[in-house]
Q: What sequence folds into this?
């Protein structure tokens, strides 16, 4: 039951600062099935407890909602966390709020923010810090490791803190205006479409399945993989993902899926079916 009716924001600056600190162990529980989902749930848990303090069912549903797949450059994760808390506040106040839109927005932000975070922090700043630190360290200077830590971590921590504040501000201010203007349904539809596109792109990028099978022999042989790519690039990864999705919908144990994948992979590789 949604209890909150006030227009005042429940989340304060102190809550956002707490979320900033709780975002630091984001990757401590990373794993292949859902990656950062536990870290994200831990990051926003205290905020959710405050939003749903009189609604145990709502809190339970919110925590379960944020145990879905999530992966992003950890330094920008508080930006998504801030937007999520703002949307959870709207959900607590509005009984007609579509909760599926929360995960849709999360999925839509994963790809773009990861692209920015990886290229800016991991691909540029970290490389620069390593270059400067290493050049001093090889000369025996103690400033090498110190400068490396400072050059990378000071901007990274500043960005993380900035994202904690601005994410919530964006969600609290602009999403409310969008809702009041009557454009919320269109916004959520666009977010859902973008989220599906991101998941589709991740499927093609992260699931690697190819076949070395060919029709004919010698230089004139036609590779089946080329035919499949001509019909639709990434067809095999999509098919494999679809199989796994259907099996998981049937509540099959993930451990058995992993064991089955290993066995099928070994057999198919041995007989030259998959490469």
A:
């Amino acid at each position: 039951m949604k209890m909150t009716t006030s227009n005042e924001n429940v989340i304060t600056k102190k809550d956002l600062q707490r979320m900033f600190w709780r975002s630091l162990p984001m990757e401590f529980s990373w794993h292949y099935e859902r990656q950062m989902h536990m870290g994200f749930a831990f990051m926003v848990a205290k905020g959710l407890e405050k939003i749903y303090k009189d609604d145990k069912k709502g809190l339970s549903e919110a925590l379960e909602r944020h145990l879905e797949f999530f992966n992003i450059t950890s330094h920008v994760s508080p930006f998504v966390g801030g937007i999520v808390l703002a949307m959870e506040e709207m959900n607590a106040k509005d009984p007609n709020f579509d909760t599926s839109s929360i995960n849709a927005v999360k999925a839509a932000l994963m790809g773009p923010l990861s692209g920015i975070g990886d290229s800016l922090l991991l691909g540029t700043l970290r490389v620069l810090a390593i270059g400067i630190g290493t050049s001093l360290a090889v000369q025996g200077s103690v400033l090498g490791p110190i400068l490396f830590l400072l050059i990378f971590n000071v901007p990274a921590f500043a960005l993380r803190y900035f994202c904690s504040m601005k994410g919530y501000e964006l969600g609290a201010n602009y999403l409310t205006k969008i809702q009041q203007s009557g454009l919320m349904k269109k916004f959520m539809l666009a977010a859902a479409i973008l989220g599906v596109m991101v998941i589709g792109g991740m499927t093609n990028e992260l699931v690697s399945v190819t076949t070395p099978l060919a029709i004919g022999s010698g230089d004139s042989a036609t590779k089946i993989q080329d035919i499949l790519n001509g019909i639709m690039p990434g067809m095999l990864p999509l098919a494999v993902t679809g199989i796994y999705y259907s099996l998981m919908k049937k509540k099959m144990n993930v451990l058995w899926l992993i064991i089955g994948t290993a066995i099928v992979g070994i057999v198919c590789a041995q007989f030259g079916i998959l490469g």
About this structure: The two ends are 52 Å apart (CA to CA). The longest strand covers residues 214-215. Residues 100-137 form the longest helix (38 residues).
